[in-house]
Amino acid sequence: MSIRVLICEDEPLARETLRDFIATQPDLLLVGEATNGREALKLIRALNPELVFMDIQMPEMTGLEVVRQLQSVPPIIFTTAYDQHAVTAFELNALDYLLKPFTQERFAKAVERALDAQVAPDERGQTAESALARSEAEPLTRILVRDRGRIFPLAIDDIEHLKSDLKYTQITAKGASYLVRVPLADLEPRLDPERFLRVHRNAIVNLDHVVSMKPDEQSQLQILMRDGTELLANREASKRLRDASI
């Protein structure tokens, strides 16, 4: 049985590309196209699609605004020429995020993820508010980062430590560092508290990547990470780490 698909895209060439790519997927059935945000909102409510390709920057209403106004949120793959909304897209439970111009191979991978993530009928009626509440309550499993012009999902398990840098957060993983436009305070509630610990105001460590800890003259713990980074835990974090030790 085919999945009913809606395109929400204001650029004619981008709509044509999506239309052509959808035609190559036997499991997809195109049921409509919207050229602006308000039309997208209207068609989603009227057609009840099972998958939506949603451009973020559209006239009258952005794709993110459309999702926030929906009473029932269908599976969504966001498309855009800009990467700064990547984290927000995943916060809204997006299945994937296609950065224009994307290839047919990349499109096919997004569709494959959509097919794998088909939810049970009784879960489809979630509101945007409940989707956000659920995402805020569940630990992150991945976050999108940018490196040399490409965007890719970084597994939370691979993150060694995070440091705040004004409105950015520097994420270190697998010997590399990435900047994301999300404050450390916004990321902290979405990290597993059993593994991630804020050691001082500007840093969070993944305890799975800690090599050793030793007290300094003030009895604060000096933390050595696998990548060689040394971080000084404040008194509160040092106490928590001592209390947790056997």
From TrEMBL:
Keywords: Phosphoprotein. It comes from the Bacteria. Residues 143-246 form the HTH LytTR-type domain. Residues 4-115 form the Response regulatory domain. The modification 4-aspartylphosphate is found at residue 55. InterPro entries: CheY-like_superfamily, LytR-like, LytTR_DNA-bd_dom, Sig_transdc_resp-reg_receiver. This is LytR/AlgR family response regulator transcription factor. It comes from Piscinibacterium candidicorallinum. The lineage of its organism: Bacteria, Pseudomonadati, Pseudomonadota, Betaproteobacteria, Burkholderiales.
